[in-house]
Amino acid sequence: MASTPATNEPRSGIGPAAATPRVAAPDRRPVGVFDSGVGGVTILREILAQAPTEHCLYVADSREAPYGEKPPWYIVERCERIVDFLLARDAKVIVVACNTASVVALTHLRQRYTVPIVGIVPAVKPAVALTRTGKIGVLATPTTAQSEPLAQLIEEFAEGVAVVTEVCPELVPLIERGMLAGPEIEEPLRRHLDALLAAGVDVIALGCTHYPLLRELIGEICGPSVAILNPADAVARQLCRVLATKELESDASAALTPYFTTGSPGEFREVLRLLVAPEPASIEAIDLDRVDVPW
């Protein structure tokens, strides 16, 4: 009988097994989101829209709102206590849903903690890309307006473009009371926007997570020729990139968000209702002066 010629070719169906791609197990730990108050719900809403399988925890440091006029050292201390609180509840990622906290404390928090931390900065770069007049506006709190991160953004991305920063210290306290319309908030808002419009801006970056809650009123005052940039979409997209890169994505069913506030739960619930915020699973009062840390 003739022998079968030797061959190095593997017979059909036989040979080295192909490497099986490693699939990360779903990570159902929560995403921790925090702000000085209710403004971060604009970020939370977008996170839940873009990542509906993620479970979130939301902390509002309502007792200390607004952060915009607090000294930097104090903001850093409050942020540390909030992050400790969220880590004690097994948060896998932290979202600093506050412009002031981000420009003051984000670098420090990333150095102090190993958990991934997503922050927020005024949308200077996309505003520069959109402007036709070569003039953009930034609505901001005092601390954000005077911060080094904002100055760096302007230096890096706004060459040849005039950036007009308008400081709005009175808006956040009004929004914290659920005031989105009426003369008490329309008068100062119109004054700040008129200053930007008089300077010739055709794009306005909202430099505080509270301000998108006034988006409709801002649009009415500015008219259709002025673009209004809400940073929430960019923050949610960055969170999704971090979750995917770090293999932290969840596969859980959508769930209601537990809220924690350093203020009054009853008042916080009423403001959430007025803002049409994501429905709470619960609202719990917390004392960040006594934080259970995870170590």
How does this structure look, described?
- This protein is α/β, with parallel strands linked by helices and 295 residues long.
- The chain is built from 11 helices and 10 strands.
- The strands form 2 sheets. The protein has a 6-stranded parallel sheet with strand order 4-3-1-2-9-10, with helices on both faces. Strands 6-5-7-8 form a 4-stranded parallel sheet, with helices on both faces.
- Helix 1 (41-50) crosses helix 10, helix 2 (72-88) packs across helix 3 (99-112) and helix 8 crosses helix 9 (215-222).
- The longest helix has 17 residues, at 72-88.
- It is globular, with a radius of gyration of 23 Å.
Which helices and strands, and how do they pair?
Blueprint: E1 31-35, H1 41-50, E2 56-60, H2 72-88, E3 93-96, H3 99-112, E4 117-118, H4 124-130, E5 135-140, H5 142-145, H6 148-157, E6 162-167, H7 171-176, H8 183-198, E7 203-207, H9 215-222, E8 227-229, H10 232-245, E9 257-261, H11 265-275, E10 280-285
Parallel strand pairs: 1-2, 1-3, 2-9, 3-4, 5-6, 5-7, 7-8, 9-10
Quick structural gist:
The protein is an alpha/beta fold. Helices cover 40% and strands 16% of the residues. It has helices at residues 41-50, 72-88, 99-112, 124-130, 142-145, 148-157, 171-176, 183-198, 215-222, 232-245, 265-275, and strands spanning 31-35, 56-60, 93-96, 117-118, 135-140, 162-167, 203-207, 227-229, 257-261, 280-285.
